[in-house]
Write a structure and sequence with these properties.
Blueprint (H helix, E strand, L loop, with lengths): L1 E2 L4 E3 L16 E2 L18 E2 L4 H6 L2 E2 L14 H11 L4 E7 L3 H17 L2 E6 L5 H20 L4 E6 L1 H14 L11 H12 L5
Parallel strand pairs: 2-7, 6-7, 6-8
Antiparallel strand pairs: 1-3, 4-5
InterPro entries: ATPase_alpha/beta_chains (IPR050053), ATPase_F1/V1/A1_a/bsu_nucl-bd (IPR000194), P-loop_NTPase (IPR027417)
Family: Belongs to the ATPase alpha/beta chains family.
GO molecular function, one term: hydrolase activity
């Protein structure tokens, strides 16, 4: 994928989905996930203003911290993510919409994200009708894009909805290849992929 700026919506291969023309730029991103040396990773020291006072005051998030948001369907996760994207003080926001219904992808961009949020964001979308491999590629592309801007010295906020669908995509692939199911039907490879994905984020 070539980096061309923000305000774009792409698929798992970095191809535009927003009818805004081809992506410009001449910086190519690697296919594999970036790795951070454990002894060189910077500690979490400074707070990140996510633009939501309740979170800033009661559940303060630090720059480089990784946080899981667990909740049932229909309780407002997408609304909260949209608020954070619009009002955060982070310079770049990378949003991964993995396994969502196509309608939900459009609604998130138009209603939750809005123009203010989209202007400083890169959206990677792999709806539910995409292949499992494309959903995996889209999730990993989010982390690669975020790592690119992180290494440029920018404050980056990475939001992925959701890691569960990332694991489900790997389960589909692994079971079709004959890998034996383990906990809750997930193959061992799914449990090895998630730490590798999560560890690629954070401070460097």
């Amino acid at each position: 994928m070539a980096i061309s700026g923000w305000g774009r919506v792409v698929n798992g291969l970095g191809e535009p989905l927003d009818d805004k023309g081809k992506l410009g730029g001449d910086t190519l991103l690697p296919q594999q996930l970036p790795q951070v040396h454990p002894l060189k990773r910077q500690p979490v020291e400074a707070p990140l203003d996510v633009g939501v006072r309740a979170i800033n005051g009661l559940l303060t998030i630090g720059k480089g911290q990784r946080v899981g948001l667990m909740a049932g369907s229909g309780v407002g996760k997408s609304v909260l993510l949209g608020m954070i994207t619009r009002y955060t003080q982070a310079e770049v926001v990378v949003v991964g919409l993995i396994g969502e219904r196509g309608r939900e992808v459009k609604e998130f961009i138009e209603n939750s994200l809005q123009e203010a949020g989209l202007a400083k964001s890169v959206i990677v979308a792999a709806p539910a009708d995409e292949s499992p491999l494309m959903r995996i590629k889209a999730t990993e592309l989010c982390h690669t894009i975020a790592s690119y801007y992180r290494d440029k010295g920018k404050d980056v906020l990475l939001l992925v909805d959701s890691l569960t669908r990332y694991a489900m995509a790997q389960r589909e692939i692994a079971l079709s290849l004959g890998e034996p199911p383990a906990t809750k039907g997930y193959p061992p490879s799914a449990f090895s992929m998630i730490p590798r994905l999560v560890e690629s984020a954070g401070n460097r």
